[in-house]
Amino acid sequence: MTITPGAPPPTHHTPLALARGFLTGGVAGTSLAALVVGGIIANVPLFVAGLLLPMVYGLLFFLAGAPRRAREADAVPRTALAVIETLKAIGGESGDIPVRFELSVVPDDEPAYRVETTQDVNLVDLSDYRPRGVVVVQYPSDRPWRVRIVKRPTPEWEDRAASARLDSVPEAAKVAAPPEGCAFAFILVLGLLLGAAAVTVLFRGDLLNRDDATKPPSAARPTVSSTSATTVVSSASGTVTLGPGQSFLGKGELDRAVGSLTRGEDTRQALTVVVQERLLSIVFAPTGARSPEFDPRALPYDRFAALVEEARTTLGVHSPTNWQIITDRLTGSLVIRVVVTGPGGTASLDADGQGDVVRRLPAR
Q1: Strands of 279-284's sheet in order across
Q2: What is the rounded radius of gyration, in angstroms, for the C-alpha atoms of the chain?
Q3: Using 50, 70 and 90 to split pLDDT, how confident is the model at 245?
Q4: Mind giving me the DSSP string for 165-233?
Q5: Which residues have C-beta within 8 Å of that of residue 271, sequence separation ≥ 6?
Q6: Are 27 and 193 in contact (CB under 8 A)?
Q7: First-to-last CA distance in the chain?
Q8: Is residue 21 within a helix (H) or strand (E), and if so which, with residue range?
Q9: Which of 120, 114, 171 is CA-nearest to residue 145?
Q10: What is the C-alpha to C-alpha distance for residues 81 and 136, in angstroms, rounded to an integer?
């Protein structure tokens, strides 16, 4: 079959995408700052607002996208044949595993093109896919990069795939989702910084004066545990900040940091634990309060690095710029939520108290 390669879509970004990035960054920065500041100054309404803000934003974002999703659901996808150029399993050991395919897609009435896509394939069916094999695919007419392999095509398309002989499409005809560019990442980070700064400025008086009236001078000053980490502990919260070039994903870093915040407190429970690249924050449960608390020393910290890596590579966020882990028991059971943000949007996954993934929310 003779193939006429098509041209890849142009790179662009829209004002709406930039506004969404700024708002997402602002919500993330405001929420995190509200959790940390609210815990430090023991301001319960501020702390609760920090928990509720991303939930409300997520709900509004979901509702705002409902019309678009309805239009996409009503649109009839295009069906075409494609030849598998390469395939590679990128994770998993049992059941459905994600597989990255590189395909040459050959529509009947449009130019052919090359595309990469990731799709879950059951281990039992993995042998059905091989390089140079012909498969049936579907994709939205306005987003040809969102190709999905049809696992059970109609008899007509199944017969066409069995008898087709397709040529490869050159690399020059590869298509992908239009990147947002550097402007999106800049706007996202700007929104995050402004959101965090707004909360810090509004409550700077409480931060400067916290506990000064009841604590001796030595207790009000941060204690430096080493030249590479700073630890601050109060009755309501504790934070550990690592020095440049370090990360809490390093082996043993989180265990040591949590130990420095809970040393000598055998029964000290937490309301939430927030982990970023170089910042650990724990908000402790008030003594005697009936709240959804948990033991911060019992978390599966050895699984955190793997969870972050899985969120960064399997949820559709290309070139993620930042991540954070939020652990709480607001819904009753312990939830470890990993949130990653990048030019492709925001995505998250939830894990249980043993560090096993129980839910994924890919980027949209």
Answers
A1: 223-226, 229-233, 237-242, 279-284, 270-275, 322-328, 335-342, 345-351, 357-361
A2: 25
A3: confident
A4: --PPPPGGGEE-PPP--HHHHHHHHHHHHHHHHHHHHHTHHHHHHTTTTTS-HHHHSPEEEETTEEEEE
A5: 39, 47, 283, 284, 285, 291, 292, 293, 328
A6: no
A7: 35
A8: helix 15-40
A9: 114
A10: 5
Please tell me the distance from the alpha carbon of residue 362 to that of residue 349, in angstroms, as a whole number.
8
> How many whole angstroms separate alpha carbon 240 and alpha carbon 273?
12
Single-letter residue type at 125 = D
> Does residue 72 surpass a pLDDT of 60?
yes
C-alpha torsion 215→218→221→225, nearest 10: -130
Cα-Cα-Cα-Cα dihedral sign, residues 175, 176, 182, 184: positive
> Considering the chain, what percentage of its residues have pLDDT values greater than 70?
86
- Predicted TM-score of the model (pTM): 0.41
Contact between 357 and 364 under an 8 Å Cβ cutoff? The reply is: no
